[in-house]
Design brief:
The chain is about 75% helix and about 0% strand. By secondary structure, it is mainly alpha-helical. The longest helix has about 45 residues.
Length: about 325
């Protein structure tokens, strides 16, 4: 590589880093578009794949420094760790020609670990874990609004719903908030895992399409009707579920959370495969695409467990009779 090429790539890294940070800062302040911030890794993935990991890392560092300067150091640290690690891991997996599923899983693992590290840094910084911190914020807001009759309005709603016929004290509301935060905390591992898988999948897919358009050799996910997990995944999930169930019955500490997490992930993963099976036979029946999408969404929302059971049966028995082909294997 000559000096002019190196300089050109360095300038490209700086531009990507600056533009990415501006987009992240702007989106952070726009309601309903905040979640779009999680698509921030896409330009870094494209840059890293085409120019190399070191250039992607340079863009990540530049962007995190700008975000930390204009927002907050923790926000900049989060950009560096969460988004940066996800982008670099996915681009690395793409370079290694890994399967789309493996690349997505590696990206999700990087995101999960990074989020947990950021949460720990937050806990050390404020002296409380994230759930206690936000629970206290809600309590403070309720205390400030008590004079405006907010508590009485909540009590009236509860009476209309038949939850209680008596007045509700601020202390009872505080206990309800604590219970809610504990419930969220218990479900958080599965929520985080599913959320990370979805975001990693979107980042991989969009980046892959963009790279394909630029003439790069990148493996994309097959048609949705052909999705299925690798062999052995069904038996592996069942074994893990049995272990978690036995651990929960034995009263081992926190195994109830482990069982909930594994169950929710199992329902999500095999629910997706179940929808793929349904879509496969819908396509064979030549059902309209829009109608297929509507039905699949309704099935996943209303009877996700049924979809998960269909997915598991397909994983064990290969009801679609799909062949082991690199082009249709996730």
């Amino acid at each position: 590589m000559n000096k002019r090429q190196g300089l050109g790539r360095a300038v490209e890294c700086i531009l990507v880093g600056v533009i990415s940070s501006i987009i992240a800062v702007v989106l952070f302040f726009i309601p309903l578009l905040n979640l779009v911030v999680f698509l921030w890794p896409i330009p870094i993935i494209v840059l890293s794949f085409r120019r190399g990991i070191k250039y992607g890392l340079l863009a990540v560092v530049i962007s995190s420094l700008i975000c930390g300067l204009f927002m907050h150091p923790i926000f900049g640290f989060g950009v560096l760790l969460i988004f940066g690690s996800t982008a670099l891991i996915i681009s690395w997996a793409m370079k290694k020609s890994m399967s789309p599923l493996n690349a997505t899983v590696f990206g999700a693992i990087a995101m999960i670990i990074s989020i947990m590290i950021v949460m720990k840094v937050f806990e050390v910084g404020v002296g409380q874990d994230l759930f206690v911190y936000y629970g206290q914020i809600i309590k403070d807001v309720l205390a400030e609004q008590q004079q405006d009759g907010l508590l009485q309005n909540f009590a009236a709603v509860y009476r209309q719903m038949g939850i209680t016929t008596e007045g509700i004290s601020m202390g009872e509301f505080h206990n309800a908030i604590d219970d809610m935060m504990e419930m969220i905390k218990s479900a958080f591992p599965s929520i985080l895992t599913i959320f990370s898988l979805i975001l990693s999948f979107i980042n991989y897919s969009v980046s892959g399409v963009l790279l394909k358009r630029k003439g790069e050799d990148v493996r994309l996910f097959p048609s949705f009707s052909l999705w299925r997990l690798p062999r052995g995944a069904g038996r592996g999930f069942i074994a893990i579920l049995i272990i978690a169930y036995i651990g929960n019955l034995s009263g081992i500490r926190n195994f109830d959370i482990v069982l909930m997490t594994i169950t929710n992930i199992w329902v999500f993963v095999f629910g997706i495969q179940g929808l793929s099976v349904v879509d496969f036979f819908f396509k064979r029946a030549k059902i309209n695409r829009v109608l297929r999408v509507i039905i699949l969404v309704l099935v996943f929302v209303l009877v996700r467990q049924v979809a998960a059971f269909i997915g598991l049966i397909d994983q064990l028995l290969n009801v679609r009779r799909l062949q082991d082909d690199k082009n249709i294997t996730l």
